[in-house]
Design goal:
Helix content is 73%, strand content 2%. It contains 20 helices and two strands.
Length: 394
């Protein structure tokens, strides 16, 4: 149940609408609802139901949870999509006929879904990715030989986006199967950059299993096999591998390895020069700095000062995708909790929710920090309890 009043919801919708320079009439037409409905919602005279809220959110290109606090429709949609994804990939190596979409339309859909992944809009992904993935599999099996490598690259991207749903929502076995599909597609693409990206994503299976030493070995092999960083894309892909290797090294308790990989990542971030997305992975100087906090937190509470120094007087800009920005604030909240700064920790969690509510709600560290705050921090108890219920921490 949302704690927001109809007026608060209406004000948020009106602000988003004006930011996109839409009239109430244009919003109503694009969302396929009546003008009277939009007008009444923005005045606070009525509260939108789930279907209307989602239609308005999609038109405004925002997460519905950013319009109504506590909205859980996206999570329900994700959990309905997971069995469909399992069914789609059960026979991925079997030719089952041609895709429904033509290649250009399929590529556009996969690119849009990738953008939603970076913005942590999992509910929107869930509505489309099972069918996209099915078509991408069919396209690999039916593409003319001159298109086969392109089809395989598209499949690798679709599988990665589908994996985001599974991994972020705790379906770890399904996530591992989708990563296997991504690696299968990468081999057929015969593209070393796609293989390197698949290795980057494969690290999730090591994080999930807490097999950090093995994960570090896997990533270091991927670094060695990746193309030399002669161009921006090559440098970004290698830099992302070093960045993730630094994080998993910190989880393995290897400070030296973490620092070595962080140094390489920082150098490659400087070489790339600015934030960008390369084969679905965001990399640049800001991403490296975000990961400095993650590395310090991964090393444990005794490194809390290092984490706080990395975040001191700095926050990621809008150039960093929402999923990664929210992750920064979640990691920072954990460090602030360790440092005995409960007010700051709760502020960081609230910022993470504002940036990417679906990502924040599903993150296990959010629940850990909230439980600690409720145990030891009595100020703002009502607001904290409401947040805890939203995050599933109680």
């Amino acid at each position: 149940m949302s704690a927001d009043s109809p007026r608060e919801i209406g004000e948020r919708i009106a602000a988003r609408r004006r930011a996109r320079r839409l009239t109430q009439t244009a919003l109503a037409a694009a969302a396929h609802v009546s003008y009277a409905t939009v007008r009444a919602i923005e005045r606070g005279a009525r509260s939108p139901g789930d279907d209307v809220l989602e239609a308005i959110a999609d038109t405004l290109d925002v997460d519905a949870a950013q319009l109504r606090t506590g909205y859980l429709g996206a999570e329900r949609r994700v959990h309905r999509a997971l069995p469909a994804l399992s069914e789609v990939i059960a026979g991925y190596d079997l030719p089952l006929g041609p895709p429904i979409r033509p290649p250009g339309q399929l590529a556009e859909g996969i690119t849009t879904a990738m953008d939603w992944r970076l913005r942590a809009q999992y509910g929107r992904i869930a509505a489309t990715v099972p069918d996209l993935l099915a078509d991408a599999i069919r396209y690999v099996h039916t593409a003319p030989s001159v298109e086969h490598r392109h089809a395989a690259r598209m499949l690798a991207s679709a599988a990665r986006t589908a994996d985001a749903l599974a991994y972020k929502h705790g379906a770890r076995d399904l996530s591992a199967r989708l990563i296997d599909l991504m690696r299968w597609a990468a081999d057929r693409a015969a593209d070393p950059l796609v293989r390197a990206t698949a290795a980057y994503v494969r690290a999730e299976t090591f994080f999930a299993a807490r097999s950090h030493t093995a994960g570090l070995v896997s990533l270091e092999r991927a670094v060695d096999a990746s193309p030399p960083p002669t161009g921006r894309t090559e440098a970004a892909i290698r830099g992302a591998l070093h960045m993730r290797a630094a994080v998993i090294a910190s989880r393995a308790g290897s400070t030296d390895a973490a620092d070595t990989h962080l140094t390489h990542a920082r150098q490659l971030g400087d070489q790339v020069g600015r934030e960008g997305t390369y084969l679905g992975t965001t990399f640049g100087p800001e991403s490296v700095r975000v990961h400095e906090v993650s590395i310090a937190v991964g090393l444990g509470p005794e490194h809390v000062d290092r984490a706080l120094r990395a975040a001191h007087a700095w926050k990621p800009s809008a150039d960093v995708p929402a999923e990664r920005r929210s992750g920064f604030y979640i990691e920072l909240a954990r460090a602030q909790d360790w440092a005995g700064r409960p007010v700051d920790a709760f502020d960081s969690l609230k910022t993470a929710r504002a940036v990417a509510p679906q990502h924040t709600r599903e993150h296990p560290w959010v629940r850990e920090v909230v439980r600690n705050l409720r145990r030891f921090h009595r100020a703002d108890a009502e607001s904290l309890s409401h947040f805890a219920r939203w995050a599933g921490a109680v």
